[in-house]
Amino acid sequence: MTPTNVEQLKKLPQVSEVMQHPAFASVAEALPHDLAANMAREAVDAARQRILTESAAAPSTDEVAAEACRLAATLQQPSLRRVVNASGVIVHTNLGRSMLAQEAIDAVNDVIRGYSTLEYDVKAMDRGSRHDHCERLICELTGAEAAIAVNNNAAAVLMVLSEFAAGREAIVSRGELVEIGGSFRIPDIMELSGARMVEVGTTNKTHGYDYERALTADTAMLLKVHPSNYRMFGFIESVGIGELRGIAEAAAARADLPQAPLVYEDQGSGALLHLDAFGTYAEPTVRASLEAGADLVSFSGDKLLGGPQAGIIVGRRELIARLKANPLARALRLDKMTLAALEATLRVYLRPERALESIPTLRMLTEDAEQVRERAESLRADLAERLPEGAAELSVVADVSRAGGGALPMCDIPTFALQVRFLAGNAQACGRYLIQECPIPIVARISHDAVLFDARTLTDPDELRLVVAGVATYFADKVKG
Ligand SMILES: *Cc1c(COP(=O)(O)O)cnc(C)c1O
Q1: What's the rounded Cα separation, in Å, for the pair 195 and 35?
Q2: What are the residues facing 265 on neighbouring strands?
Q3: 404 in contact with ligand 1, CB cutoff 6 A
Q4: Distance (Å, whole) CA 64 – CA 12
Q5: What is the reported pLDDT for 72?
Q6: Could you identify the atom of ligand 1 that is nearest to the CA of residue 178?
Q7: Is 406 near ligand 1, meaning CB less than 6 Å away?
């Protein structure tokens, strides 16, 4: 410790001084004494750390008290809260992936208001299973014999590997050893499950015979992983579900193999409808994977399906029955709020044309660009009325939205955005202001010194109003000052 540091440390206020400081005292009054004292202590500690590690000067008591006030305010404010997504990334993983359909919101509200049939069978007037609420619907929508929904798709993959491949081998192509954002890696999940991973093929090419040669008496599974967030081009080859089915059937006929391996696809995004608008890049549907011969398919509830966070496993009845009996099904089970949202979302899909309208993720993915342009234009007009002279240049520009969430990575979705160019202030500062200072943070895109508000993900009139208010407030300060 340098002599200067020691001197600065001596200048730091005591916790009791911060407690008595008029600015903090009024805040502290509203808090239990111990809690207020913790805030004051934290503020003093933070200042001490800055002196020690950055050789900073000691802050004044006013400054420490202001920091204590800020800490107390943070404690009172929700950390998880609503944001406005003007980024144009539809399934935005950092912003909660899919928005729920109104039907799902209503179902959650209804179920959380009181007691529910979570594990009660009304017909039998006896104990029921929480797995029953969604199963029938999932089967109708995918053509599966049976289904189970758990916490998320990572949990679903873990459960399938644990139940069917623990202590045995699962064959997977080297081209599919993927990492999905947020630390989900196939090799790691494989290790956790106790399955032995047998890698075949190369990064760019894997053939049917690569799987055939790797088959042993210990092979439990042929695993196919959908390359959700990337695509490979050029000299490439991978083996489809249909061909894997054929390999599994041929294995069943071999005397040296005790049983046929399961064909399991981790499909990731989970499209229940084929989105024709995306042509050849449209994600394969769950139904198509089952029809091609997968024994089991798993997928997320909050990616292309557009529902709550969940992992859904579909497939043959006897296999799903084993999963239901696995202790992991208990550990990874869904809560009543998620089940209500999932069931309601799935029910919307019974009428596909309604799903495209009611499920926000599908609506945003497929909305006509002209309609998006109209919203961008009305946003421009509303904001123009609110901006002082000399603040900014506003224009509506053609741009590209993204599906996000590791789906449709090759698809440039045409969109229109309101572009704000700065005559006062600047894009970085405005972007920061909209996120950090607005009561409901607004996440926009910053590009070439302009801020862009993508109208494709701004669907609610209320969100347009928030954007107008946020930007207008930013400029009100700038132009006055
Ligand atoms: C997204 C994804 C996962 C993880 O799903 P979560 O629902 O986020 O847990 C696993 N596998 C693939 C192929 C994915 O795309």
Answers
A1: 48
A2: 224, 297
A3: no
A4: 9
A5: 93
A6: 13
A7: yes
Decide if pLDDT at 481 tops 60.
no
Q: Which ligand 1 atom is at minimum distance from the Cα of 155? A: 9
Q: What are the tokens at 352?
A: 């596909």
Q: For residue 413, what are the β-bridge partners?
A: 401
Neighbours of 203 (CB within 10 A): 12
pTM > 0.85: yes or no? yes
* Minimum mean pLDDT range among 106-120, 146-160, 246-260: 246-260
| Cα–Cα dist 67/54, whole Å | 18
Regarding the beta carbon of 298 and ligand 1, being less than 6 Å apart is answered no
Q: Report the atom number in ligand 1 closest to the C-alpha of 156.
A: 9
User: Which tokens in the block code for residue 410?
Assistant: 């090759």
Distance between CA atoms of residues 134 and 118, nearest Å: 11
**Calpha distance 449→419 (Å, rounded):** 10
Distance 454 CA to ligand 1 centre (A): 26
- Longest Cα separation, the chain: 85
Whether pLDDT at 118 is above 60: yes
- Which of the two residues, 385 and 228, has the higher pLDDT score? 385
Give the Å distance between the CA of 113 and the centre of ligand 1.
Answer: 31
Residue whose Cα lies nearest atom 2 of ligand 1: it is: 268
Averaged pLDDT, 233-256 = 92
Cβ 269 under 6 angstroms from ligand 1: yes
